Amino acid sequence: MSCRKYGWAIILLLYSCSGVKFLSENELFYKGATLTIVDRDNSVDHRFMLQDLKKMMEPKANETIFGMRPAVWFYGAMGEPKKKGVRRFIQNTIGSSPVLYDRSIPSRTVRLLENRLFNSGYFDARVGYDIKEKKKDIVVHYQVELGEPFIFNQIHFPADTTILGREIRSTSSSSLLKKGKIYNLQLLKDERERNNQHLKNKGFYYFNPEFIQYDIDSTSGNHMLEVWMRLKDELPISSLKSYLIDSVVVFSNYTVEKDSVIRSTQAVMTDDITYLDPGKKFRHSILAPLIFIHPRQTYALDDHNLTLKRVSELNTFKFINIRFQNSDSSSNRLNSQIYLTPLPTRSLRFEMEAYSKSNNFVGPGISFDFQNRNKWRGAELLSATLSGGFETQITGRNRAVNSYEVGLDLDVTIPRLVPRIPVKTSPVSEIPKTKIQISNRLLRRSGFYRIHKTGVNFGYKWNENKKKFHQLKLVDVNYAFLGSSTDEFDLLLENNPSLQQSFADQLIIGGSYSFTLSTQANKYKNDFLYFNGNLDLAGNTLQLFNGALSSNNESQKEVLGLPYAQYIRGDIDFRYLRNITETNVIASRLIVGLGVPYGNSDQLPFIKQFFIGGSNSIRAFPARGLGPGSFQSIGDTTLFVDQSGDIKLEANLEYRAKIYGVFRGAVFLDAGNVWLVNNDPNRPGGTFKLGNLWSELGIGTGVGLRLDFSYFVFRFDWAFPLKKSYLEKNNGWVIDEIDFLSKKWRQDNLIFNIAIGYPF
Description:
The protein is an alpha+beta fold.
């Protein structure tokens, strides 16, 4: 076929997928709109205003890719299917109805934009537009002339002598309305809500933010505004009173069906709060610290909301309702009833999942999870999980390696600290929790070994505020032993004493602390910062009591006949994501880790060592296929088990962009390696030396395709190395060897990663 024929074929494909053939003669596609802001003051940054205005421009055009509208084509190609069936499913999921141009769109959009600009302080703003028609597409171009914004100049607070007026004036220094700020309708609403919250915290339960009104004068000139805040005329008498709490009754096992049979004779009073729980489902001492509404105290909205928040954090109640009624004993008192409807105590859940790991292993898994939400009448969560899974490594040089894992986990979560210790919290934080975990797992790697792992840990989890999270494991015990192994694996251990020691039966007793800082909760920022730091200590306490516990006087100390590990291990994970636009993101990550064995250990236990490479790390190298240092392993089996280190450095940079629909694209650059603290004759070049840091970095790059369904992400990454840490030639750089047309180069260098979720 000639090039001309290829060209006509491509044109025909583009035309058929554009969806034009499904339009009638007078119908036109609405291809979207552009928006330009014209401002005499070019020094003002209008990016946020531009984003806000663009969100108001409706309708949203059909997505296109290379001029095609695949979703529209699928919609039209399915014709008029029945209410159910494959064609209807394709039309509603893959397809999308064509967005057609309507003559009312520009005028309607102009009104919306001018109204939003007026509410943002640009009273004289004008919006014009022009229409561009090309073939069967129409694009509307809007131009916004802002003009001068109107500015708050004088702010007057209520001058009346009522108690409400005095309370509002008392907080004027904290007002959101400041001289010099640009007028904004939302700011006026927020200020009204701020005063409403202040008054409700002073006991004015029946006050309403609508009772506050504004008078605004714009006639003073120079685009200056004078604002008078005042109270609405003829307010209800109830809104003028500050109320005290008269009584508090908690229905801790409330259902609508039992409402009429709950009698006061079944009541129990603790700290002036009455509890009605005929079935004695919950201990009153558990609920008492979570209730901040108390008799003889002034009603406060903050106490009301904090009670709702704290009780909901127990994750035990299906419904939580707090009602207030006027008391019969006094005209300025309220009775409070707290109705708590529990969730079902026991539940059984079955899950099937597909997962991927950083070592390029993917596979299916199943789990059975039994939960008891109130095991000991204290809202404790008891969870028992039986899980199993099969994994196979689908990329890299070890594709024949399979893995089977079966585990039984028992978790207890107690919604308080046991024993109680002081931790820093705030009203926005969650209830501190005590966590007890017992796990037993069996891992079998075909052709290599079978490992049994048992762990017990006890500790606490709490968040200081919305950004800061803490986890402290006071006791963390792990015991792993090699149940069985193949002759091939035994020979590998025999030839590598360092590896043999890391797989030896070993007891790990210690503790750990983890701190996380995350700004993701701030939805108004264009960037996202994440930091996680971990410190893991093992064997310190045992060394102090070794004389009393040890049965071995040799250099290798033991507890109950088992050698125990001693090490200090720490790592940090720092991530920064920057939203360039709504669909374009730059993501970066830096990982630094260090583990130092000492005393009873010459190296870190295998399960505590650092690894690098794989689908969530340096994607141009197989999992555990890089390092340590300039060392290069020979043979697939060595690669599989021996590429680990005591020091880790990794950096990643990724640009993510939307392609079409659920399809996302990415370009990335990864760099890093692992190193040893102590010299290992079996891995020459693996010891960390600062002067060799740059030369021993592995660097890779590649492109990715992602299917982002919001709740689920499939990820496909193609990566290849730019620099190999184990090569001396050109200091490891292999850019000049890149040849995508060479089959041998692709086999030796191109790595295809399949994963679930974003790498970071």
